[in-house]
Amino acid sequence: MNVWEFRKEENQRVMERYQLSMERIRQIPEEGSVCEPYGSFFIKTARFIIRLEGLIAWLQDGGQKRAALEEWKQVNHELYQDILPENYEKSYGNPAFASMELGKELGPLLSLLYAEIRCNIPCAYEGKLQEITAANEAFIEIYNRFEESIPQAQEVKDVLYWYVSDYADQTLQTWLMERFSSQWSFAKDIIMESDLSDLRYLYQFGEYISSSEIEMAAFLNTLPEETIQSMADTYVEGYRKGFEAMGRDLSKKKTVLVRYEIGFERMIRQAVEGFRKLGLEPLFCRVPQRVLTRNPSRKVGWHSTSPNKQYDYDHRYDSAVFMGNTVKERKLEVLKTAFEERREEASWYAGPAVVETFGEEGFQPVNKKECFALSPHQEEVVRSFNNEFNQLMNQYVPEEETSFTIIAFPRPEIGEPYQEIFQEIIRINTLDYVLYRDIQQVLINALDRAEYVKVKGKGENSTDLTISLCPLSNPETETKFENCVADVNIPVGEVFTSPKLTGTTGMLNVGSVYIGDFQFKNLKLRFEHGFVKEYSCDNLPDPEESRKLVKQVILKNHESLPMGEFAIGTNTTAYAVGRKYNIVDRLPILIVEKMGPHFAVGDTCYSWAEDCPMYNPDGKEVIARDNEVSALRKTDVSKAYFSCHTDVTIPYDELESIIAYEKDGKALEIIRDGRFALPGTEELNRALEEL
Q1: How far apart are CA 592 and CA 77, in angstroms?
Q2: Residues forming beta bridges with residue 518, ordered by sequence position
Q3: For 307, which DSSP code?
Q4: φ/ψ of residue 2, rounded to 5
């Protein structure tokens, strides 16, 4: 795709404004009309905008096609160097530095403005002059306020508010278009048309390219074609199986959203062809970066390594400057209009297919008082927006008609022997479907007889949980647990249910677990009748700061969440690989959740699709699709969902026992001393015994 041709009419409409904005910004470094320390901020930011103007001209002129690899590296470094960890302490992108230099009131606001200007980098690569012009004009308007005198913070806030509000239509409609329309093929064209053996292609995405992306792409280029094909086939087939397992009609769908991390293009190219054979055209949208669309909890789209996770963390709640009911309603109004305009395209959407990576060291954030934070009222507004957006999404893309799949591979940061580890993960992702299906059915047969389950930790692990299970009306045709094999969640290896909240009580503790980018240490969640009542971790010296981290990352800023899932992982092979290479604490939750019992807080696995029948391979209907909270959808949907689902796993070596209790008190040992104890599950212990 030639993005300049694609956006020709759109850019022609805004070209005069863009040129006028650049003419004004080019004057700023020479004027000296704003007093210090603010003058230095505006001069530095203006020079960055001028640098982007040069980048746009270079891209339009085809300079990227002629540039050597070293030139590409230099361009990429210049664009991102200011926020790299080694420079971040003196960057205006750092709210703490901005506050120290520019004042505690104006500093964080100007840091937000600087971060928003930096979002123009990908826009330059994608030819989005409208977005660039809007940010430029907001910068000029704030600069003008400082020319007159030092403004009050509220004046700057007002400019930022109207910048967000005035361009909500453009920002949100573009986001929705890229999510649903096959016309937008910026990333797909790079993937499908580039010479992937020439690593210059990595820089065409406009993302920060670290040594990890380069090493990953170079490594994939060394793998045999059959290995790449196997990786892609496992991914695509898992997606197809998801529809099959859920009894949903894939033939009615035409598009699939591919979410992945840069460096995996060789595999993704094969996956594109695989999806096309299923009748699906892959869509690619970049992770949203604007303050209006950014998701502080997760990255939804394609992306690269963050140049600085602390920078991302510092700006995660910049929306606190403008968030309120007015903005919420404005966003919903725009999205409803956009959905209506793309009703047909939305109906074709089959759901996401995700490739994750893992292996980086755990991120230890610094909570800075200078950063914006949501007030309790704003947290409630965000929760309300998420709930209403999900209802809107479900109206145009019914949950019962879609599926997903997710698979993960290691990054070079996981260490040596990297090639061996990568091959082991491929093996884990392609384990015997039938073997696990049949062993897991043995577990389900026992658990279906139970009224509740007790889970206890071993040694320093203080887990002591009672899980209440829903009753069966007809055991001949109904089951409590889903038999999860390699479809939506790759690799194989779990049985799971939606527990009853009443009676689900006790302590969940795990020594180390990754949740997104964060490695939690000695995480504790105490439940009362299914809801989290107390929580803590040992990540930060101040216990209260650690509590805030748990609330932000795991509870998603809710005061409490219900237990939405109880599962028993069966993938002892994955656990053995983790122990063999000493990478258990680096594995993603996608794999770790298969390596012991895990518990999700938030919505159930069946949120928004509770009324859709779900069947196991043995033909029995999984009836534990609801709990006491999700059942509220029948009377007040706003109280039924939390728009999150976060898994926490206890690894086998921290586990003393899992015992299921029948109504008459009879005990059935599922796991004893970290080993599977039911007759018929002995094969699962083989990998553990080989350690």
Answers
A1: 35
A2: 363, 515
A3: S
A4: -85, 105
What secondary structure does DSSP assign to 31-47, as a single string?
H--S-TTHHHHHHHHHH
Residue at token pair 């797909």: 188
Q: Which two tokens stand for residue 290?
A: 């604007």
**Whether the Cβ atoms of residue 399 and residue 609 lie closer than 8 Å to each other:** yes
Question: Are 574 and 584 spatial neighbours (Cβ–Cβ below 8 Å)?
Answer: no
As a whole number of Å, the end-to-end CA separation of the chain is: 51
CB 134 within 8 A of CB 174: no
CB 532 within 8 A of CB 555: yes
Q: List, edge to edge, every strand of the sheet that includes 655-662.
A: 531-536, 518-528, 500-515, 464-468, 450-457, 655-662, 667-672, 675-676
Condensed to tens digits (0 to 9), the pLDDT of residues 252-279 reads 999 999 999 999 999 999 999 999 999 9
Predicted confidence band of residue 226 (pLDDT cuts 50, 70, 90): very high
Nearest to 425 by CA among 230, 245, 600, 684: 230
Count of alpha carbons within 13 angstroms of residue 118, beta-carbon side: 26
**pLDDT at residue number 486:** 65
Instruction: State the virtual CA torsion across 227, 233, 234, 237 in degrees, nearest 10.
Output: -170
Look at residue 93 and give its three-state secondary structure.
Answer: coil
| C-alpha atoms less than 13 angstroms from C-alpha of 550 in its C-beta half-sphere | 28
Contact 115, 98 (CB under 8 A): no
- DSSP annotation of 674 reads T
Q: How many CA atoms lie within 13 A of 514 on its CB side?
A: 20
Question: Model pTM?
Answer: 0.89
Neighbours of 608 (CB within 10 A): 21
Domain boundaries, the chain: 3-166, 179-407, 455-689
CA–CA separation, 325 vs 158, rounded Å? Answer: 16
The pairing of beta strand 349-358 with beta strand 405-410:
parallel
Q: Which two tokens stand for residue 252?
A: 């009615």
Residues 216, 218, 222, 227: is their CA dihedral positive or negative? positive
Dihedral pair phi/psi, residue 602, rounded to 5°:
120, -145
CA distances from 101 to 93, 104, 516 (A): 12, 9, 33
Task: Say if residues 564 and 645 touch (Cβ distance below 8 Å).
Answer: yes
Q: What is the number of other CB atoms lying within 10 angstroms of the CB of residue 369?
A: 10
Place of tokens 């038999």: 483
- Whole-angstrom Cα distance, residue 556 to residue 387? 13
What's the token pair of residue 327?
A: 């903005």
- How far apart (Å, rounded) are the C-alpha atoms in residues 275 and 281? 7
Cβ–Cβ under 8 Å, residues 490 and 235: yes
Q: What is the DSSP letter of 485?
A: -
Confidence (pLDDT) at 608: 84
pLDDT of 570-581, one tens digit each? 999 999 999 999
In 3D space, the residue among 518, 529, 533, 534 whose CA is nearest the CA of residue 646 turns out to be: 518
pLDDT single digits (tens) 468-494: 999 999 999 999 999 987 677 788 899
* CB 93, CB 114: distance < 8 Å: yes
